[in-house]
Structures are given as structure tokens and as C-alpha cells.
Amino acid sequence: MNREKLMKMAGAVRTGGKGSVRRKKKAVHKTTTTDDKRLQSTLKRIGVNAIPAIEEVNIFKDDVVIQFINPKVQASIAANTWVVSGSPQTKKLQDILPGIINQLGPDNLDNLRKLAEQFQRQPPGAGAGAATAQDDDDDDVPELVAGETFEAAAEETKTT
């Protein structure tokens, strides 16, 4: 390259005047903490108060339950706002059923009835094993015969 062009490019990188040190790296600003601060300031403006001694929070959605164990719970009754923060676990309703029967509302009691009817319809011992036995027949790979190819075997099964 031309020495003149190099000097011109080197001069464009300076942060100050002539004789100042060149910038070594670009400063990267973190935005994750600003989002959290913005959320906390909005919650403070709404007027949420911490609710102590809550051991578990369950959020019911159809057949799925989002479960928080030992969460931080904040609420503002006037703004009709509840904040649940912690690590969630998504579980099926039947997995945590015995411990949460007293927490179920009228909508989820209907789901519970549907689950009970499904279990009563299934014959004993015909759980998930019976369903997979039927599906395995369709997914079998055809046997290889000398002189035959997979394409020919696939065409043969499509025609029958």
C-alpha cells in the first residue's frame, strides 16, 4: 500500500488531537442490567410490595403446570399486578397431581375429570407400550435381498 494512504487511515483512528494515543478497543455497553433496572423502577413506580414466606407458585395452563419453588413474589393490589420471579419448571398436571388437588380451580377440575376418564378407558397394562407396538410396524426398514435396492423395495410397498 501507499505510505500516504496508511498515514491518512491511521489519522482517522485518533480520539484526540495530534500526538494523542490511539484507541485500543471499542467500549461495549451492556444492556441486560439496564433492562433489569428499568423493570425494577417501573415496579417501584406501580408500588409493588414483597410478599414473604411463599414456598411454591403454580400457574395452570391446560394440561401443563408452570411451577416455581421458593420464588420471590411481589404484588400491587391497586394495579392488579403480581410479579413472580425465580426458576420455573414446566410439568404435566398428572405428575404433580396428589399435592395440588386443593389448589385446583373449577377449570382445572374439568381437566382432572378428563384425565380420569382417559385412564379408565385404557385397559389395565395397556399403557404406552401398546401404542408404540403399533407404530413400530410402520417404521421398519425393509430387508435387503441380493440384487434389490431400497428404491425398488420402497416402490413395491407403495404399490401394495
3D architecture notes:
This protein has 160 residues and is an alpha+beta fold. The protein has a domain of 80 residues: Ubiquitin Ligase Nedd4, Chain: W (Single Sheet). It is built from six helices and six strands, in the order ααββββββαααα. The strands form two sheets. A three-stranded antiparallel β-sheet has the order 1-4-5, with no helix packed on it. The protein has a three-stranded antiparallel β-sheet with strand order 2-3-6, with no helix packed on it. The longest helix is centred in the C-terminal third of the chain and has 16 residues. The radius of gyration is 32 Å and the shape is flat. 2% of the residues are buried. About 4% of the residues have low confidence.
